Amino acid sequence: MKILLFFHVGSLNRGCEAIVRSSVDLIKKEYPNAVVNLASFNPESDALIPNLNNIYDVRTSKVNLYSVEGVISAFNVKFFKDETYYWSKNYKKLIALIPQHDIFLSIGGDNYCYGEQPWLYEIDRLIKKAGKKLVLWGASIGGEDISDTKIKDLSSFDLLLVRESLTQNILKSKGIQNVELIADSAFTMQKEELPLPFGWQVGNTIGFNFSPLVWKKNKESHKAAFDLIKHIIDTTSMTIAFTPHVIEPNNDDSECMQDFYNAFESTGRVILIPNNLNAIQYKGYIARMKFFIGARTHATIAAYSTLIPTMVLGYSIKSKGIAKDIFGEEKLVLSLAEISDSNKLIEKFDEMISQEKEIINELANNIPRIKEMSKKAPVFLKQVMN
């Protein structure tokens, strides 16, 4: 059995790395003889991931508008409104891998949350045209992201494995039946504990993750986050460890958190975790924190999975659904609109502090169940193979 993980942007997004790392481990445990390959848009960043058989460079090939391919593409678009030829040339490296594999796992988690993506639909169509098995692997999709075109594409999959129940309910409400509920594979990812940095208080350090993505979507959130940090400094004795989790150029968490660090450095109670660590190393730090506040979903999964009380800063259906499946409610998850409200942030932080023991107990009771749901994903592949 030859499996290809595809639509992976690269491991400078440590959440994407976490998905690949943990997925490969789960698949190999269930199918020791399986060949598991990765198609990547940034293969150099993925060399650190063990147990992959091959990593393929599938970066897009830009179509020259003045070449034969460019002319044919322009003709098809202009006269037939047909972009399929263009996409087939753009993604020819990925398409060339289709004959070599049996099962295709569309990974990335939220690739279907960014509007219409005709190139993505075309790749899926070609996979199915070749008679291959196609699985959506651990995804989240919001109601606002659903369209007739997307429903048609998703209905062509042999199996949709979704990582939280809100997405499951939305897809089933749209008449899509081939849906099974799992949990994000990253809940099972191992951790690596590096030496603690200077200034870290054992048992009294809180992690703080903020992202350029959230800042871009809500400009006022930066000031509200600043006010929350000041509240933590003023009302607790905790050290704050600013923890990046995506380190891509122009999307580096540490760059926007550098402002926070500079503003509070003189207190002696802030740390900026380096932006050159891998996913298991970040998890190793997060696992030794007292609390965690995070905007990046997989940073919060690292916290949840190691029983750290966690507050989530305004994201999407995936964060809401993950919290609901753990706690039975969207506990300590703030919407994108709410995170520009300093009072709301402080109120939720104080709630997390006051409920520390109860939250830890809930996590201890429920995370084993969530991890078992993660482990169901490769088992579901049997029904696809049959």
Structural account:
The protein is of the alpha/beta class and 386 residues long. Helix content is 45%, strand content 16%. It has helices spanning 14-30, 68-80, 84-90, 92-95, 118-129, 148-155, 165-173, 212-217, 221-235, 253-264, 279-286, 297-305, 317-327, 342-354, 356-385, and strands at 2-8, 35-40, 54-57, 103-106, 133-139, 159-162, 179-181, 205-208, 239-242, 247-248, 251-252, 270-272, 291-294, 310-313, 333-334. β1 (2-8), α1 (14-30) and β2 (35-40) form a beta-alpha-beta unit. It is globular, with a radius of gyration of 22 Å. The two termini are 12 Å apart. The model has no long low-confidence stretch (mean pLDDT 93).
Task: Please render the helix and strand layout as text.
Blueprint: E1 2-8, H1 14-30, E2 35-40, E3 54-57, H2 68-80, H3 84-90, H4 92-95, E4 103-106, H5 118-129, E5 133-139, H6 148-155, E6 159-162, H7 165-173, E7 179-181, E8 205-208, H8 212-217, H9 221-235, E9 239-242, E10 247-248, E11 251-252, H10 253-264, E12 270-272, H11 279-286, E13 291-294, H12 297-305, E14 310-313, H13 317-327, E15 333-334, H14 342-354, H15 356-385
Parallel strand pairs: 1-2, 1-4, 2-3, 4-5, 5-6, 6-7, 8-9, 8-13, 9-12, 13-14, 14-15
Antiparallel strand pairs: 10-11
